[in-house]
Design a protein that fits this description.
Two copies of one chain form a homodimer. Chain A is α+β, with helices and mostly antiparallel strands. Chain A has nine helices and twelve strands. Chain A is 31% helix and 25% strand. Chain A is globular. The interface between A and B is large, with 81 and 81 residues.
């Protein structure tokens, strides 16, 4: 499909500007609806994710392109957790007057993240408003989507990558100092672990979740959905310099994956394939659904992640 | 699918509250992703639509339930324009502290509109923020979706229903007076013309669009997408009491459909079937893409609808 022609009007001028920048990254945008094909034998996987100014980011922290990229990567991360192949996304953008000069760069950031994931931008909505907000809805497909509900007693809990960078950047900004550039990059340019999840699913992973609410909190969601108990050893979780094990367990805004898989699988090819650690950090057991946490051999209260509504 | 169990946390408590109210209207919500089936032989149709406090509504105008209902019906209206059958929706809700007491009622409104359309609520996102905002993404399917791009020279332009109520309600509120109850009801409880569109598509309609940006503006989008010229006679468009023909052409916030169909079709069963007018209001011609407008036999400048970004 080629983008539909649009009638006159300032809103449509803005959409036209985005379409011109997106070029072949956009497909069929401009009408109110998009029509998609899902490969035969695969199931449709959908998710939606909102990034709001002053809640998920502040204007002083990120460039408009980074805001667009980050919002899109965060949404795509939910497709990664399902081991789904991204197909398409829709962008609902609330653009205040004060942000209009950033529209092109926001659009570029969205397109960069979409292109990196192989997702076409197929539609959206543009409204005015008082604060910048991006709701990205992602559509993917998988023959056998992973869910949070598949973990079984006896499974091993794995973590991709290392934790702590985004939280350290956030802490620095909130303290009024410039974050370490590596920490800042991890906050501004999260990577959805799409290929990594498909690799794990193909080798027998039973469940996965991204740890955007914090490793311990998200392990709790996975445990609740699967009806299992999860024992995590936070000392084992790789982390960025300056991050404690407890901080790594609580750190939000991460887009690494926690995945479960039967014990005894050979997953040693992962790091060679993706140049990324894959670390066993816990076990799935029977018993009441929930999470228990050990640090340096001692049981600790589960450190919970950031929660938007507990402010 | 049954709703996934959720871990602890205030955000998840709020989601649990919504799920409890939604009951069977919700399916699989609680995880970050939803998995859907699309009937064999049908194509997936998706659209997203945002309603923002102080842009699309004000707190003093609508109840929380009406806000939820209206945002959802507005999104579903884009599926109607495609003559698609609604399957599922996702709700991305930005809920300020000042609106938390309204959460149950907002959820009820969303569920009422979803149920009326036969769409399951399959996922969403809940964040805090400074202004209430609802982004509803709708997924539907159709063997042969209608688009804006199918109008052909010689077609007749039809309009469902009558225009003017929502704009009259808006004008009253902005003037500080209570709107007429019927006008208010049309603003607060828009009806997505889903069955009507499928009926028209089955009988040969070539293109459709909802007139939420105003009849003339949306006819312009349809003309641009189809590469045709559309001549509208606004005097012919049914309208609510107190609405002029020009006002009816400009009135936004309407969820009636403009549809094109070949001349000579017998669509006389429509009104009997739906207890709703279906009125020929114009013709599709060749010539440069665009819209021309006649009122009482005289050519007038096309009255354009409300535009969020031209404020």
């Amino acid at each position: 499909m080629r983008p539909l022609a649009l009638g006159p009007g300032a809103e449509f001028d803005a959409v036209r500007r985005m379409l011109a920048r997106w070029g072949p990254a956009a497909s069929g945008v401009g009408g109110d609806t998009a029509v998609l094909e899902i490969p035969a034998g695969e199931r449709l996987v959908v998710s939606t994710d909102t990034s709001v100014e002053n809640v998920h980011f502040r204007r002083a922290w990120l460039s408009p392109a980074e805001i667009g990229y980050r919002a899109t990567a965060a949404a795509l991360s939910d497709l990664a957790a399902a081991a789904a192949t991204p197909r398409a996304l829709l962008l609902a953008l609330t653009l205040p007057r004060a942000w209009r000069d950033g529209l092109d760069a926001i659009a570029d950031g969205v397109a960069d993240a979409a292109r990196a994931a192989g997702a076409a931008i197929v539609g959206g909505d543009l409204t005015s408003g008082e604060l910048l907000s991006l709701t990205v809805t992602v559509l993917g497909s998988a023959a056998h989507p992973l869910s949070r509900a598949g973990a079984r007693a006896g499974d091993v809990v794995y973590l991709t990558g290392r934790l702590g960078g985004p939280a350290a950047a956030l802490a620095a900004w909130l303290a009024g100092v410039a974050p370490d550039p590596l920490d800042r990059a991890r906050f501004a340019h999260p990577v959805a672990r799409l290929r990594e999840a498909q690799w794990l699913a193909a080798r027998g992973a039973t469940a996965a979740i991204d740890v955007s609410d914090g490793l311990v909190a998200d392990a709790g969601h996975l445990a609740a959905a699967s009806g299992v108990r999860i024992a995590l050893d936070l000392s084992a979780a790789p982390r960025t310099a300056g991050t404690t094990a407890i901080e790594a367990g609580r750190a939000g805004e991460e887009y690494e994956l926690a995945a479960t898989a039967p014990a005894g699988l050979d997953l040693s090819g992962f790091t060679r394939e993706f140049d990324l650690p894959l670390t066993a950090i816990g076990r799935v057991t029977g018993g009441p659904a929930g999470v228990e946490v050990v640090v340096a051999g001692a049981r600790v209260d589960p450190p919970m992640g950031y929660n938007h509504l507990s402010d």
